[in-house]
Amino acid sequence: MSTIQKVNFEPVSDYLPIQRRDFALFDPTLADPTNAICLVDGEWLTLNSSYQAIRATNIATVGNPATLKSFPLFAEKGRYDVRAMADTKMPLLFRGEWEFDTRIYDASAVVGSGAAMTTVFQWLKVATIAVASAGRNFTGLVGHGGYADPAPVVGYITRLPSANGGKLRFINGARL
User: Fold this and answer.
1) CB-CB neighbours of 37 under 10 Å
2) N or C, which terminus of the chain has less Cβ within 10 Å?
């Protein structure tokens, strides 16, 4: 079961070829840690037509799958350096090859034609998930359903939560 903590998204190695990009938030109030639905590290965002970061899914309803390419947020909730940037910009992992541990996932969720997370190198997609310990919804990782699933592939499982202290380990990637 996923839990939300201070650090929810952390690299497996200090040496990873990451290209981080800062994008202005469409809704700057999501950077405010006192906002009940503020963004947390490891949530997934996409870009709107104005080149602004928005949540990859509508978090009002659990199970909404992302339909566009999504990128993980790489900044802890309420960081002042992020909030002090002009236009309230948030750093997204935009390019590069990387491997991360995350707490923002639902291993048992089956969204659309997806599948529960059961095996290493299973494809991953983004959807709205509920985290009971936090009492709210997030944009997080769920199992992908394979070639029949139209949702974008955002990564592959490299270590299941049951073998990784409750955190999901994954590498980024696109459908091969």
Assistant:
1) 14
2) C
Structure tokens at 170: 């994954």
Reported as a pLDDT band with limits 50, 70 and 90, residue 174 is low
Rounded-to-10 torsion of CA 119, 64, 171, 74: -140
User: How far from 131 is each of 14, 64, 103, 108, CA to CA, in Å?
Assistant: 28, 15, 10, 12
Q: List Cβ neighbours of 112 (8 Å cut-off, separation of 6 or more).
A: 63, 65, 127, 145, 149, 151
- pLDDT digits over 54-93, tens only? 999 999 999 999 999 999 999 855 555 555 556 788 889 9
One DSSP character per residue, the chain reads -----S--EEESSS---EEEEEEEBSSGGGG-TTSTT---TT-EEEE-TTS-EEESS-TTSTTPBP-S--EEB-S-TT-HHHHHSTT-EEEEEEEE--EEEES-B-TT---TT-----STT-EEEEEEEEETTTTEEEEEEEE---TT--SPP-EEEEE-GGGTTT-EEEEE----
Q: Where are the domains of the chain?
A: 9-172
